[in-house]
Amino acid sequence: MQETRAIVHKVMVPPDTEGYVLDVVSDGMYTIDEPLVTLQLLDGTEKKLTMTQKWPIRIPRPTAKRFPAVKPLITGQRILDTMFPLAKGGTAAIPGGFGTGKTMTQHQVAKWSDADVIIYIGCGERGNEMTQVLEEFSQLIDPRSGNPLMDRTTLIANTSNMPVAAREASLYSGLTLAEYYRDMGYHVAIMADSTSRWAEALRELSGRLEEMPAEEGFPAYLASRLSAFYERAGMMQNLNGTEGSVTIIGAVSPQGGDFSEPVTQNTKRFVRCFWGLDKSLSYARHFPAIHWLTSYSEYVNDLAPWYMDHVDKKFVDNRNRLMAILTQESSLMEIVKLIGADVLPDDQKLVLEIAKVIRVGFLQQNAFHKDDTCVPLEKQFKMMEVILYLYKRSRTLISMGMPMSILKEEDIFDKVISIKYDVPNDKPQMFKEYMKMIDEFYNRVMERNA
Ligand SMILES: Nc1ncnc2c1ncn2[C@@H]1O[C@H](COP(=O)(O)OP(=O)(O)OP(=O)(O)O)[C@@H](O)[C@H]1O
Ligand SMILES: [Mg+2]
Hints:
Shape: globular
Order of helices and strands: EEEEHEHEHEHEHHEEHEHEHHHHHHHH
Bound molecules: adenosine-5'-triphosphate, magnesium ion
Structural class: alpha/beta
Helix content: 40-55%
Radius of gyration: 25 Å
Strand content: 5-15%
Number of strands: 12
């Protein structure tokens, strides 16, 4: 049944049912409660199938087998796709203090990721954010299928003014829905905003049951509940032979942005991707405020072959080189803090300059810019190429004794920083011009010193 333009809803035999098809109704208009298929079960009784299924939400729907994670969930966000990639069927947490961009990041992933179905669970957060999803998503067009984004999105609303008991259940409702679509062979991504509100609901219910409180008043089974939640993610072979996945992305809102509290700590044990938001970055309006030094993705190695086959052989290598420059910057900054940048040798000044290009030109991404909001992998790769080429050429100049002050008189660093705005997503051929500009810059500096 064509449920929306984006989804063909399959009428499936429930997992716990086995038998022979006796009868199928002819094409036509039916409501979701009308029987479409008659089965004869093994014990001889008959069972009617409709377009709905009932399933206890706390129990995972069974699958045939679990595959290792080898395909990325592509989101169009550079810091995610390139630096800290998430696999289809993987798990990620977005922890961050008040106003650091948890909701924005989840909206961006919900909008632009290449999942077939999105389940967005608003769990104990503001109601206007749910309205925003409804309004924005019906106007936005999925760049891959050309359908309105709302056609593939399901919202589960349990906003902060709604009952606590329902909040505890809302996460499981979302999961079960996701598994239901996964069983049809879709790749489903779940955003849960926020799992902290869910844990607080758990705490409240546990308190009313007069259970023994553990750390910070949370029940002792907080960890096992969290693990049971994230365990339902995975790339699966379904019982009907199709392949589908559930990817879980949970926001965590620790009070005061303190990552040592129990929900963040326990979540960290069960997710393999950690996109840590940083208060000082968001305060400096560096968005997405995902900090490259506190975040990690354990999928980098698992997904490396995919990136090398589908984007470029050098993709992962380039990514690692950018990370190395950023790490180098952070240790240099320790020295700069003590004695200032002037005393650094020129090759280290260059590292700081290139790290700035990476931070501002590559990691910063404007969600409100028409091109920058979602960037294809090819452009992400080419941007890395240009930055690393600029680094290579500048390093040669410096090793020949040119001072950094001369290099900085050129505007090439700023030009590379604004590639994200100046090169439209559909014009990758423009990158050649940048390579040429870097060569010209190199020749100009050489001539000046000759
Ligand atoms: N990727 C981004 N691009 C541009 N602006 C951003 C981005 N991420 C966050 N912001 C800015 O930060 C503001 C706060 O973001 P958001 O509402 O997502 O934070 P939050 O962590 O969900 O906060 P809360 O704890 O209140 O739920 C946004 O209104 C927006 O102005
Ligand atoms: Mg929020």
